[in-house]
Design a protein that fits this description.
Elements lengths: L10 H14 L5 H16 L4 H15 L4 H4 L4 H50 L4 H10 L7 E8 L9 H14 L4 E6 L2 E7 L5 H9 L11 E4 L3 E2 H22 L5 E3 L5 H6 L2 H12 L10 H12 L4 H8 L3 H15 L6 H17 L7
Parallel strand pairs: 4-6
Antiparallel strand pairs: 1-3, 1-4, 1-5, 2-3
């Protein structure tokens, strides 16, 4: 078999090769196997499946078998057996080489597709590339950027990548439920990301549910943040940044909620935008707590617990692992030291805002 001289899929040369093996009983040479590998690779590129390719060559083997010179001229059973063994060994080697080439082409195609997908996701989430070109590429991955899209981001105890069991399971579940249009699952910076059309009701909520569900092969996400829907390719970037911002706030403020909606956290960036003003608020309102027994932290934790439980004293005391009587004493001490009464709505808001700023700024562990 000479390189470059093959008929479509090499069947003509294959007939000559089998004829020679039937006469001589020899094994296939390295260069012949290389040509078969190239034929397998070319067949994959032309869209022929591995099953179709192997079936074509096995069918040709069966068609030619009785007319092969070594088979037709075999004098006895022993010679026919030797010829048959040689031919089967050649067919086995040929099919293995064809399969190897076919698989090599498939792996290359997968790597190219993964690289294109990764580049698209990077451009989409960071707002790079020409918007018209980005919209064209988005169609290839099932997104139509003209409408609204929202982004969900999940983070867990371990980094997510495209081969992570949780990432693959979440993608499988979402595609089974919503199809492959207007829902894209990807990973970025160790997090799991879902881009969903704004009109696909429940897609991001389902993403949050599946991402937080334990399964075999890896730990599920412990927190998911959902950005708001925005229009166009730029809207995807905005929603993604909102989700990332929600995750950062959750860490800074030690929020316990496993699913965060950026729409519910809009007040926090506004309040924390001026860090100098926030530091002044913390010093002015909460600074006197340092005079309390045990320092400011126990009283500050009391404000956090009461705010988190809507001032249900029994629940706040349970979270703090103190008695309700101790909690009441602490609230009275907060009022006495700061001059702000937690029972008064406006003054309570000031205390809670200052306590939130203390969390972000790391006070009292870090000086202001």
């Amino acid at each position: 078999m000479e390189r470059g001289a093959a008929e479509p899929h090499g069947l003509g040369e294959y007939a000559g090769l089998l004829a020679e093996v039937s006469r001589t009983g020899r094994l296939l040479r390295r260069e012949e196997l290389d040509v078969l590998r190239e034929l397998g690779e070319r067949s994959a590129e032309e869209g022929l499946s591995l099953r179709e390719l192997v079936g074509r060559y096995l069918g040709e083997t069966r068609r030619l078998w009785t007319s092969l010179p070594g088979v037709a001229r075999a004098a006895g059973a022993a010679e026919r057996a030797r010829t048959g063994d040689a031919l089967l060994a050649a067919v086995e080697a040929a099919v293995a080489a064809l399969g190897e080439g076919h698989e090599r082409a498939q792996r290359l195609a997968v790597r190219q597709e993964e690289a294109a997908r990764r580049e698209f996701v990077d451009d989409l989430l960071y707002g790079r590339s020409d918007l018209g070109r980005l919209a064209e590429r988005a169609e290839r991955f099932g997104l139509r950027l003209a409408g609204e899209h929202a982004v969900g981001v999940a983070e867990g105890p371990e980094r997510f990548d495209d081969l992570h069991a949780v990432a693959r399971r979440v993608e499988r579940e979402l595609l089974a439920r919503f199809g492959d249009r207007d829902v894209l699952i990807a990973t970025k910076a160790g997090r799991l990301v879902c881009v969903a059309a704004g009109g696909r009701d429940g897609a991001l909520e389902a993403f949050a549910k599946y991402a937080r569900t334990d399964g075999p092969g890896g730990h599920a996400a412990h927190r998911v943040a959902l950005g708001r829907p925005h229009a166009g390719a730029g809207g995807v970037v905005t929603s993604y940044e909102e989700a990332l911002g929600a995750l950062e706030l959750a860490t800074q403020l030690e929020l316990a909620e496993p699913v965060l909606h950026a729409a519910d956290l809009l007040v926090f960036p506004v309040l924390l935008r001026d860090r100098a003003a926030m530091a002044d608020l913390v010093r002015s309102v909460l600074g006197p707590l340092t005079e309390g027994r045990g320092g400011a932290r126990p009283l500050l934790e009391t404000i956090w617990a009461c705010a988190a439980t809507a001032y249900v004293n029994a629940e706040a005391a349970r979270r703090l692992q103190v008695s309700v009587r101790t909690l009441s004493y602490r609230l009275a001490r907060i009022k006495e030291l700061t001059g702000y009464d937690p029972a008064d709505g406006l003054q309570r808001y000031t205390l809670e805002t200052a306590a939130m700023g203390a969390r972000v700024l790391g006070w009292p562990d870090r000086p202001l």
